[in-house]
């Protein structure tokens, strides 16, 4: 759409079309709407490209940005399966409440879970008890 057409559209929306400042205010709002529409257009086009198997590298090339920038701008934020607070709490170590994570090794039992740190601590406690029992 031509700028003069857009200005006419803004003027038609202005409370008082003969007041240039009212037209400017309406143009500002229209500009924000167009900007949101433009963003939505790109989001949709990228979504379709991704659905068709296009790489982030190719998408970035076409948009004139890096693969990382394209992914950061358009990729849906990754939601970890343990992302919700309740699920994190339920999946936490039953002894120390450490939540699950990529670096937390957890042993799952029927009534709960135990993290590797608690397994090690439990091992030391049992070893101490056995050593004391011998004396
Ligand atoms: Zn633990």
Please name the defining characteristics of this protein:
ClpX-type ZB domain-containing protein; 135 residues; Znf_CppX_C4; two-stranded antiparallel ribbon; single chain; protein dimerization activity; 6 helices; elongated; Znf_CLPX-like; zinc ion binding
Please describe what this structure looks like.
The structure is a single chain. With 135 residues, the protein is mainly alpha-helical. It has a domain at 78-135. It is built from six helices and two strands, in the order H-H-H-H-H-E-E-H. The chain has helices at 3-13, 20-51, 56-63, 67-74, 85-90, 116-134; strands spanning 106-108, 113-115. Strands 1-2 form a two-stranded antiparallel ribbon. Strand 1 (106-108) and strand 2 (113-115) form a beta hairpin. Helix 1 (3-13) packs across helix 2 and helix 3 (56-63) crosses helix 4 (67-74). The longest helix is centred in the N-terminal third of the chain and has 32 residues, at 20-51. The termini are far apart. Bound molecules: zinc ion (ZN). Residues 93, 95-96, 98, 114-115, 117-118 line the site of zinc ion. It comes from Acrocarpospora corrugata. One of its GO terms (molecular function) is protein dimerization activity. One of its GO terms (biological process) is protein folding. Pfam families: zf-C4_ClpX.
